[in-house]
Design a protein that fits this description.
The complex is a heterodimer. Chain A is α/β, with parallel strands linked by helices. Chain A has 2 domains: 7-83, Fe-S cluster assembly (FSCA) (GMP Synthetase, Chain A, domain 3, 2-Layer Sandwich), CATH 3.30.300.130; 96-182, no CATH class. Chain A is 25% helix and 21% strand. Chain A is built from 5 helices and 8 strands; from the N terminus they run ααββαβαββαβββ. In chain A, the strands form 2 sheets. In chain A, strands 4-8-7-6-5 form a 5-stranded mixed beta sheet. In chain A, strands 1-2-3 form a 3-stranded mixed beta sheet. In chain A, α3 links the parallel β2 and β3 (78-83). In chain A, α1 crosses α3 (59-73). Chain A is elongated, with a radius of gyration of 19 Å. The two termini of chain A are 17 Å apart. Residues 115-124 of chain A have low confidence and may be disordered. Chain B has one domain (9-237): Ferritin, core subunit, four-helix bundle (Ferritin, Up-down Bundle). The relative contact order of chain B is 0.15. Classes of the chains: A alpha/beta, B mainly alpha. Chain A: Residues 17-76 form the MIP18 family-like domain.
Chain lengths: 185, 243
């Protein structure tokens, strides 16, 4: 999904990708998976393809400005940041390193492998736990949202929407701490 | 891929864009008034998702700010359901249930099609799934809650029912959509949730005599004019102003 064709484009892609996310500064844009491509247009002009996490994400403008500044500092005269929607961003585009950093920052990372097709809507329990009767430990571990503080899988949903649109608010039933969960999308 | 003709694309972009814009504004009116802080945040987040959709859709039809802030009431193409006042919290949830179920099904069809809306729909359908989930959970809680919450939720579902038929009127430019199929799946989904919430499916008709719905033709209900006046006031009073 991320493409760079020449060594210079690869370098510029690295620079654009190393810009921190304006709302979650522990993550770089590369780790968030939102920088799609860098195309050189002549010798000192460049076009960057950026994809929004959510359609209404207000951070996209700050991201564009930060990318522009970083590439100008590298000597590019003209930097165009283009927003692309297709293919739609998914939380599966967050790198493993990005997930580790989210966890260390106190945000439960999104569970993997749920991004194909629309998000299933389940009128099911809002609580996840270690293992239900007849369920393997492995199945429970992948379906549970673990507390980023103590690691417990026994957590419950408080609200589907939290401080930003990409997060849900949960509470750990073991250590009682509330925490944000980066929702699967 | 068939290129949409210039004459039809703006009609559909306006219809979908105005739905998102108007509902976004209505939900934003809850800021400072929601029953609990988590709900305040949730409704604002849903409003933000819708505003993001509206900006992209209106940009397909023209200048987003001009379209949002300088059009008269009759030029808006949103369905009448989304312009209905927030009412009590139950009315807002009933409106969310009816609309998010529709929007998710419609975007699902558009995402699978080949119109210019496919990319946006594929992205937005994932967000709308959370809106629908939010509305369904609250419908269950209120419907199967106390006697008072049950009664209010039932009243809200019944009051807004006559606005639901309009959502399934074919929109020019969205030719690949199976509107009757959409209506059938919508009805099954909503009836399922209402049943689990111990609520009764409203008996009145969704469309035809004694129902409302000509928003797609530019005819709106009385509260919409007041909403627009508030929404457009700042932009009209200070043309060209910026932060």
């Amino acid at each position: 999904m991320v493409t760079a064709t020449t060594p210079l484009e690869a370098e510029l892609l690295r620079i654009a990708g190393s810009v921190p996310d304006p709302e979650l500064p522990v993550l770089t844009l590369e780790e968030l998976g939102v920088v799609r491509a860098v195309h050189l247009r002549g010798t000192d002009a460049v076009e960057v393809e950026l994809t929004p996490t959510y359609t209404g994400c207000p951070a996209i403008e700050a991201m564009s400005l930060d990318i522009e500044r970083a590439l100008r500092e590298r000597g590019l005269r003209e930097v165009t940041v283009r927003t692309v929607l297709t293919p739609a961003w998914s939380t599966d585009d967050i790198t493993d390193e990005g997930r580790r950093k989210l966890q260390a920052f106190g945000i439960a990372p999104p569970r993997a492998g749920r991004a194909s097709g629309p998000v299933p809507v389940a009128l099911g329990p809002t609580r996840t736990r270690i293992a239900r009767a007849g369920e393997t430990e492995q199945a429970a571990a992948t379906s549970s949202v673990h507390c980023p503080h103590c690691g417990s899988a026994d957590t419950e949903l408080l609200s589907r929407f939290s401080s930003t649109v990409c997060k849900a608010l949960r509470r750990c039933l073991s250590c009682r701490e509330p925490f944000d969960h980066f929702k699967e999308l | 891929m068939t290129a949409p003709t210039a004459s039809t694309a703006p009609v559909a972009a306006l219809a979908l864009g105005d739905d998102a814009l108007v509902l976004s504004h209505r939900l934003g009116e809850w800021a400072g008034h929601a029953p609990v802080l988590e709900e305040e945040v949730a409704l604002a987040n849903i409003a933000l998702d819708l505003l993001g959709q509206a900006r992209l859709l209106l940009s397909m039809a023209g200048d987003e700010d001009e379209l949002a802030y300088l059009r008269e009431e009759r030029a808006f193409r949103n369905v009448q359901l989304v312009e209905q006042p927030n009412g009590d919290f139950a009315h807002t949830i009933a409106r969310q249930l009816y609309f998010s179920t529709y929007q998710r099904l419609l975007y699902g069809q558009l995402a699978a099609g080949d119109t210019e809306f496919a990319g946006l729909a594929a992205k937005a359908v994932k967000e709308v799934a959370y809106h629908q989930d939010h509305a369904e959970q609250w419908t269950l809680r209120l419907g199967d809650g106390t006697a008072d919450s049950h009664e209010r939720m039932q009243r809200a579902c019944t009051a807004l029912w006559r606005f639901t038929g309009e959502m399934f009127q074919p929109v020019e430019g969205l030719d690949g959509v199976d509107w009757e199929g959409l209506r059938a799946v919508w009805r099954k989904s909503v009836e399922g949730v209402l049943g689990r919430a111990t609520l009764t499916v409203p008996e009145g008709p969704q469309s035809g005599a004694w129902t409302a719905g000509a928003g797609r033709q530019g005819l709106h209900t009385e509260p919409f004019g007041r909403m627009l006046a508030e929404m457009q006031h700042l932009h009209r009073s200070h043309p060209g102003a910026s932060w």
